[in-house]
Amino acid sequence: MNFLKSLYINNLLFYLIIGIVALSVFGFIFSILFFIAQLLFIGLIVLLVIDVFLLFKHKNALVAQRKTMDKLSNGDENEITILLKNNYPFPIHLEIIDELPYQFQVRNTSFELTLKSGAKKMITYSLRPTERGEYEFGAINCYVSSKIGLVSRKMQFSEHAKVPVYPSFIQMRHFELLAFSNRLTQAGIKKIRKIGRNTEFEKINEYVAGDDFKTINWKATARKDKLMVNQYQEEKAQNIYSIIDMGRAMKMPFNGLTLMDYAINASLVISNIIIKKYDKAGLITFNNKLKSVLKAEHKASHIQKIMNLLYSQKTGYAESNFEELYTTIKYKLNQRSLLLLYTNFETIDSLQRQMKYLRGIAKNHLLVVIFFENTALTTIATKTVNTTEEIYFQTIAEKFAYEKKIILKQLQNNGIQAIYTSPENLTINSINKYLEIKARQLL
Questions:
Q1: Backbone torsions φ then ψ of 130, nearest 5 degrees
Q2: Could you point out which of 264, 387, 416, 430 has its C-alpha 20 to 30 Å from the C-alpha of 175?
Q3: Cα 251 vs. chain centroid, distance in angstroms?
Q4: Could you give the CA distance from residue 69 to residue 72 in angstroms, rounded to a whole number?
């Protein structure tokens, strides 16, 4: 039974049978053709038996194994590798179909190749997940055929694996690498001139080996007749919280990801940079009720806590409750902090309903509201139109785009800093704002 399930007839066999049948039909007119058809049929049967024997003689004639990372990065291209080894004593032709997780909705992931006897081959392809959660890979299906090519043997390798998809740690590592190599400008991060020092004067001490020459106090050196240096108290680590709105306004899709997932990816990246800058990174998520509060810390292990918390977050269709957010911040955040609020306002009315809570938060903290540009509307508003219907759509798009600019202006008029950005530039613009606030010592 297993033999029959593994046996697949190739198109070549059907074509040859059709040819022999056609030759037999013409054999009614020319008898010699019927005789030739009989010989060909016998030869085909012999080749078929030989082909089946060669393919099914060996038990472990092919080895296939899938290699994936322990976790996949959301919104990024993740590399998947299939390792193959041919243990047949002859070259084989392979068609490989990998069973991908249902979230990708892909049914045509197949590869064709020829593999020599004893040869190894590595197939690499990439997947871009667009939602967090657990993804389950199925089996690797291999269809093996010899040089005869009449039939194929199906060999299935149960490489079932469950792989979690986390917020974009690939993006996080990318910006971390740029930060360590001082190449952040290559990613669009602005180099902002610092105002003053990042330290506060503490006292004057006698110079000891290893002190920075730039800190030498020449007046004190002249008075004491020996080298004296200024000592500074290092600036205290500041609390930076990423606040993510999980309400229905953040469920809007863009390039496969929701706005919430863009906010989650940006929060992970900026939290990592905050910790590398010796500040404390924290996290708050909410929708119609408060979802989670992670206290700001600057330990290296804290970034894993942030990643795990972001991985489990889910959006909903309820209206976001800014009143509860305001109450939480008022009673749980005692120290003045920088709050990066990722949310979205499509109309002025939606902003006005929440403005009193935003103003209340901004009284005790430095609040930065980050909301999104609707790039589809921007495209419609700027393209050339030819028909009355297109003019109508463009007018509506311009109205919504103008409202976004008014929202930005109203936030600034109420003493609230704001970032109006397209989703793909969210991470870079958020980092730029953080570095600007830190350089200008606004916190």
A1: -125, 10
A2: 416
A3: 17
A4: 6
Q: Report pLDDT digits (tens) over 369-412.
A: 999 998 888 888 888 888 888 888 888 888 888 899 999 999 99
Q: Tokens for 248, please give them.
A: 């229905």
**% of the chain residues with pLDDT over 70:** 92
Nearest of 72, 421, 437 to residue 266 by alpha carbon: 421
Question: What span, in angstroms and rounded, lies between the C-alpha atoms of 69 and 79?
Answer: 8
269 in helix, strand or coil?
A: helix
Number of helices (H) and strands (E) in the chain: give both, helices first. 12, 21
Amino acid at residue number 391 = I
> Which residues 6+ apart lie within 8 Å of 363 measured at CB?
none
- 246 Cβ contact partners less than 8 Å away, ≥ 6 residues apart: 260, 285, 286, 287, 291, 313, 314, 315, 316, 320
Both structure tokens of 391: 């003019």
Instruction: Look at residue 295 and give its three-state secondary structure.
Output: strand
Let me know: does 250 contact 423? Beta carbons within 8 Å. Answer: no
pLDDT digits (tens, 9 = 90+) for 145-157: 999 999 999 999 9
Residue 216 DSSP class: B
In the structure encoding, which two tokens stand for residue 293, read together? 């509060």
Q: Which residue has the tokens 């690939």?
A: 170
Contact status, residue 400 vs residue 341, Cβ threshold 8 Å = no
Q: Mapping DSSP to helix (H, G, I), strand (E, B) and coil, where does residue 348 land?
A: helix
- Please give the structure tokens belonging to residue 349: 């009315």
Alpha carbon 233 to its chain centroid, in Å, reads 40
196-246 per-position pLDDT tens digit: 444 555 578 888 776 777 788 888 888 888 888 887 655 567 899 999 999
Contact present, 197 and 438 (Cβ < 8 Å): no
- Rounded to a whole number of angstroms, the CA Rg of the chain reads 33
Mean pLDDT of 320-334: 92
- The mean per-residue pLDDT over the stretch 87-116 comes to 90
CA dihedral 56, 98, 11, 91 (to 10 degrees): -50
What CA–CA distance (Å, rounded) separates 426 from 372? 8
